[in-house]
From TrEMBL:
Belongs to the GlnE family. InterPro entries: GlnE, GlnE_rpt_dom, NT_sf, PII_UdlTrfase/GS_AdlTrfase. NCBIfam families: PRK11072.1. Its EC number is 2.7.7.89, 2.7.7.42. This is Bifunctional glutamine synthetase adenylyltransferase/adenylyl-removing enzyme. It comes from Paraglaciecola mesophila. Involved in the regulation of glutamine synthetase GlnA, a key enzyme in the process to assimilate ammonia. When cellular nitrogen levels are high, the C-terminal adenylyl transferase (AT) inactivates GlnA by covalent transfer of an adenylyl group from ATP to specific tyrosine residue of GlnA, thus reducing its activity. Conversely, when nitrogen levels are low, the N-terminal adenylyl removase (AR) activates GlnA by removing the adenylyl group by phosphorolysis, increasing its activity.
């Protein structure tokens, strides 16, 4: 690439932009006439970067400083010394914020100047951006720590003053930070204790939490001077729900007991930004064995394959063809190649334990792990993309990796790269991304997908059926090899109708070509798998095809993966509900690629971890994408559960357990997101729970209580969520943020935000329908209730049916202290001594009202929930026994689910073994049938006689409990 000082002529369109910026600069009062000598130079840079122009216009003194710094551009500035001097006169956090931002803008403008004029290499640029970021983070932390120490003293340990070590992750850790990047950080400190030497002594955990919060604010908060960096803390242990800072022992426990493979992968680039000679060796010794195994770690291959599949899936779903980082053959694929080899071999080869990609590429060459030609080609392509990335971001200091969508930025890009035109750029881009993608595909072998049928004798007639204008009798003759005449007629009618509709659609030539090869394959799979229900299967599969025939990526997926095609036919044949889900949300087709994994859902305890990993791939400032990611996660996990259910790989209790644990993980994530959004705007409330490392980020005086099916671990595929929100904030103090509000009002707004995240409809639909009517005073009550108000309402105002609902209520997520308080309140209410005759009458009357309003109106079918002898009868029997006898048998309040309460009733002698077994069998049978009905999109069981014995038994027990005997 040429030095732009030597390029002539400079594009007139860019020169005109530069002139306009120069004119705006010359009109400033602080404009200095000696800058006229540099006008040509400034106009060229201004034409290439609106960011540099804007900084110079806003801060005219930058012009003189930039020109002076350019005279010494042969070496990287000593950012540490310059920041020491700049912060020497700072006496307040407000001044600190301003100084940090202006320092950042000045030196980023300098980096942009030398980058767009090609007077430094991209390698040098990456090092400078990283060094500048490190200096800003470390010096801000030091200033804030000194400031805090004036009040609280300092945390001390066996080796003296304790630091808060700052682990820089990602490209910051690898000293290859991109120009407009956010920064991923993790904070840790040596050991617990109390601070010493201040006016007020506090726990080390509190001290370092305050320091972390202030540092994040100093860097992340947007002021009139902008921001220093967007700070992302999601890579820390436990993610958003984890403490901001952990001491060494807690961090070691986390990584030994709960650390995931993807966290190892991320930590490969983790680097302590402020190492010293005291406690640093200890934290290094904790992290190293987690990241690197002492042998060739081929056990990581499965996890890396999953990560690789996630990358490919994301490219397909988000259509990232114009994204040079995330798209196929982009920067991330190059990083994956190197970091994966580090993870596998780093334990045996200490030279691979450095964080930088370029360093490790050279080590891989020296060790002959990668062929030298391949590695050098990968390096060149990676650096070329990094140069393009810097250009895109330096135009206006925006975090983007998307190629330009306007002529000016295209012109800027080709000018900086020294290319003839944009078409030459796209040619070079294709060459580099193809090379990286080839290395990406070669890295880890994948299980070969089943081959497509290539036997012309089998497939050729079906190709004729689809492609040729055959007479009806010829079409039916082809199908006669699989179907009888009536089946063939119905099957052919559906196929012809699909073809006619397709001819009227604008599918595009490429899509039509793929479809013409794919349809015969689909027909063969259907006819071989389900000839008896071929027409029904065809209709359902074609419903999916109608939804995707304009999206060639999904047609390609099915054509290239015979296993996925067979899985689609199998699932659609089994369930119209699954068919509708895939038709509405074609992204679910990605889940069909691994049939074995599809029918083995996520472990119950892993849903939160899987969701956390999925959310890490989303920009935390992009609320729309976060909401979309939550919905996609739910849809994909639900499909896996349904597939396991359909194939009989999972019993009914497990289906409900999985759906419940899935919902709980999503509720937790939604509350985390809502809390984060609220605190960014309003600051944190004056909550009752003090920050404590044993508690998570939700230890903030807030709790979510689940009722009904969620509370009873009995969620179905279409269940809504019955929720109640509680808090224990008694303070009227304002929040501590830039837009302070009263702390009690904060929790109301938090509840509103949570409901917004659940209820908003995105491209992937609604997350869950949330029902809040079980809160105190129902729809007339506040969205969030103080725990004392909840206790008072339940004691003095609640109806019997509300106490019945409380039997199926449990704490879902939130403050541990509130969880304990709620548990006490729930037990006290349920264990009250009640008049059993009055209770019998009240419960029976409520059941009769429900039956009249909600029961089936026909004798032919059976409404599993509301009809006589159904689910609701069993639930009311159980609820009556809890309310009537918990005062004598406290164990009845222990569980919120009917199956375990029935066991308690049996062990307490309140139900006979025979009646307990009957109610248990009926309850599980009804629930299992209900799952089947949902998957078949049926409202009620069509044959009422099928459940006669169970219904009679439940009705008999109902009579014994609720009908007075003469």
């Amino acid at each position: 690439m040429q030095n732009l000082q030597q390029i002539s002529p400079f594009p007139q369109a860019l020169l005109a932009i530069g002139e306009r910026h120069w004119q705006a600069l010359s009109e400033r009062d602080l404009f200095e006439t000696q800058w006229q000598a540099h006008k040509a130079q400034l106009c060229r840079v201004f034409g290439l970067s609106d960011f540099v122009a804007r900084q110079c216009i806003q801060h005219p003194r930058f012009v003189g400083e930039l020109l002076a710094l350019l005279d010494h551009n042969s070496q990287q500035p000593n950012y540490s010394a310059l920041l020491d001097a700049a912060l020497g006169e700072v006496t307040s956090e407000e001044q600190l914020h301003k100084t940090l931002r202006l320092f950042r803008h000045l030196h980023m403008a300098l980096i942009t100047w030398v980058d767009v004029t090609n007077t430094q290499t991209i390698e040098e640029s990456l090092k400078r951006v990283s060094a500048l970021s490190q200096a800003l983070i470390v010096h801000a932390s030091l200033w804030l720590k000194n400031d805090l120490s004036k009040r609280f003293g300092l945390p001390m340990g066996n080796l003296g003053e304790q630091p808060m070590y700052i682990i820089g992750m990602g490209k910051l850790g690898g000293r290859e930070l991109n120009f407009s990047s956010d920064i991923d950080l993790i904070f840790t400190y040596p050991e617990q204790g109390m601070t010493q030497g201040g006016r007020k002594s506090i726990e080390h955990q509190q001290f370092f939490t305050k320091l972390a919060q202030k540092l994040i604010t100093a860097l992340h908060q947007i002021t009139v001077d902008g921001q220093v960096y967007r700070v992302d803390m999601r890579l820390r242990p436990f993610g958003e729900s984890g403490p901001l800072v952990m001491h060494f022992a807690a961090m070691e426990d986390y990584y030994q007991e709960q650390g995931r493979e993807w966290e190892r992968y991320a930590m490969v680039k983790g680097r302590i930004l402020n190492p010293d000679a005291t406690y640093y060796p200890e934290i290094a010794d904790i992290l190293r064995p987690f990241i690197y195994r002492r042998y060739l770690d081929y056990s990581a291959l499965d996890s890396l394959r999953k990560m690789k599949a996630m990358i490919k899936k994301e490219v397909r779903r988000r259509q990232l063809s114009n994204n040079i980082k995330l798209g196929q053959g982009g920067i991330r694929e190059a990083e994956f190649v190197v970091q994966s080899l580090q993870l596998i071999r780093g334990g045996r080869e200490p030279a691979l334990q450095e964080q930088g990609l370029l360093h490790n590429l050279q080590v891989l060459i020296d060790m002959e792990i990668l062929p030298e030609d391949d590695a050098n080609a990968l390096k060149n392509s990676y650096l070329w993309l990094r140069k393009v990335e810097h250009c895109l971001q330096q135009f206006d200091d925006k975090q983007t990796q998307v190629l330009p969508d306007n002529d000016i930025d295209e012109l800027r890009l080709v000018t900086i790269l020294g290319l003839k035109d944009y078409s030459q750029f796209t040619e070079q881009l294709l060459e580099h991304t193809q090379l990286i993608h080839e290395q990406f595909l070669l890295l880890i072998g994948e299980d070969a997908a089943p081959e497509l049928v290539k036997d012309d004798d089998i497939l050729s007639p079906l190709e004729d059926l689809w492609l040729l204008p055959l007479a009806p009798e010829e079409q039916l003759e082809i199908l006669s090899a699989w179907l009888d005449s009536e089946q063939a007629q119905t099957f052919n009618t559906s196929l012809v109708a699909f073809g006619n509709n397709l001819s009227a659609s604008r599918i595009g030539q490429r899509g039509e070509n793929i479809l013409n090869k794919l349809i015969p394959q689909l027909l063969l799979v259907i006819l071989q798998q389900t000839p008896e229900a071929a027409s029904q299967s065809l209709d359902r599969c074609l419903q999916v095809f109608r939804a995707i025939y304009g999206r060639t990526a999904y047609l390609d997926l099915l054509f290239e993966n015979q296993g996925a095609l067979k899985q689609l036919v199998s699932l659609c044949s089994a369930s119209p509900w699954v068919t509708d889900q895939i038709s509405r949300f074609p992204l679910l087709l990605d889940e069909l690629l691994n049939p074995a994994q599809l029918v083995n859902p996520t472990e119950l305890t892993e849903y939160s971890a899987e969701l956390r990993l999925a959310m890490l791939r989303i920009d935390e400032t992009d609320l729309e994408q976060q909401m979309e990611a939550l919905r996609q996660f739910k849809l994909c996990q639900q499909l896996k559960i349904a597939a396991a259910d359909i194939t009989g790989a999972m019993p009914v209790m497990k289906v409900s357990d999985h759906l419940t644990y899935l919902a709980q993980s999503i509720i937790r994530q939604v509350v985390n997101l809502a809390w984060q959004q609220m605190t960014e705007k309003y600051g944190e409330p004056d909550y009752a729970d003090a920050p404590n490392e044993q508690h998570d980020m939700l230890s903030r005086g807030f709790a979510v209580i689940g009722y009904g099916k969620l509370g009873g671990y009995e969620l179905g595929y279409g269940s809504d969520l019955d929720l109640v929100f509680l808090h224990n904030c008694t303070s009227r103090a304002p929040t501590d943020g830039p837009k302070a509000i009263e702390s009690g009002l904060f929790y109301l707004k938090l509840a509103q935000r949570i409901l917004h995240l659940f209820n908003t409809k995105t491209a992937s639909g609604q997350l869950y329908e949330v029902d809040m009517r079980l809160r105190p005073s129902g729809s007339a009550g506040l969205l969030v209730c103080h725990i004392d108000g909840f206790r008072e309402y339940q004691n003095q105002t609640a109806w019997t049916w509300e106490h019945q609902a409380l039997t199926r209520a449990r704490f879902i997520v939130g403050s541990p202290s509130l969880a304990q308080e709620f548990s006490v309140v729930r037990h006290q209410i349920l264990a009250q001594k009640r008049d059993r005759a009055s209770l019998q009458e009240s419960v029976a009357q409520m059941r009769e009202k429900m039956r009249k309003h909600l029961g089936s109106s026909t004798k032919l079918g059976f409404d599993l929930k509301q009809d006589f002898g159904g689910i609701a009868d069993i639930e009311f029997i159980v609820q009556y026994f809890v309310l009537a006898y918990a005062c004598e048998f406290p164990g009845l309040t222990k569980w919120p689910d009917n199956v375990r309460i029935l066991q308690q009733l049996q062990s307490s002698g309140l139900l006979s073994d025979e009646d307990t077994q009957l109610l248990n069998d009926a309850y599980l049978t009804y629930r299992n049938t209900n799952h089947r009905l949902v998957l078949q999109q049926a409202e009620q069981a069509p044959d009422a006689t099928e459940f006669s014995d169970l219904r009679d038994g439940v009705s008999r027990i109902w009579q014994q409990v609720f009908v007075k005997q003469e």
